[in-house]
Amino acid sequence: MTQPRAVVIGGGIGGLTAAAALHRHGWSVTVLERSAALEPVGAGIALAPN
Q1: Nearest Cα to 35, choosing from 15, 14, 10, 16?
Q2: Burial of 48 (0-12, 13-18, 19+ CB in 10 A)
Q3: What is the pLDDT of residues 4-30, one digit of tens each?
Q4: Is residue 3 part of a domain?
């Protein structure tokens, strides 16, 4: 059986998380990112209590 392949568009938090999850499940993954380098942009993720 051949290894499944995927292309993930975007190297942000969602794209890299999707790529890592697919890779853990045995997929061959290629990530395409428009920027020349992956650098922090000073953004954060916060979850507020209800």
Answers
A1: 10
A2: exposed
A3: 999 999 998 899 999 999 999 999 999
A4: yes
- CB-based contacts of 5: which residues, under 8 Å, 6+ apart? 27, 28, 29, 30
Q: Determine, yes or no, domain membership for 46.
A: no
Helices (H), 1-50: 13-24
Cα 45 to Cα 39: distance, rounded to the nearest angstrom: 16
Which helix (H) or strand (E) covers residue 31, if one does? strand 28-32
Q: Which domain, by its residues, includes 19?
A: 1-36
Q: Has residue 41 been placed in a domain?
A: no
- What's the structural domain count of the chain? 1
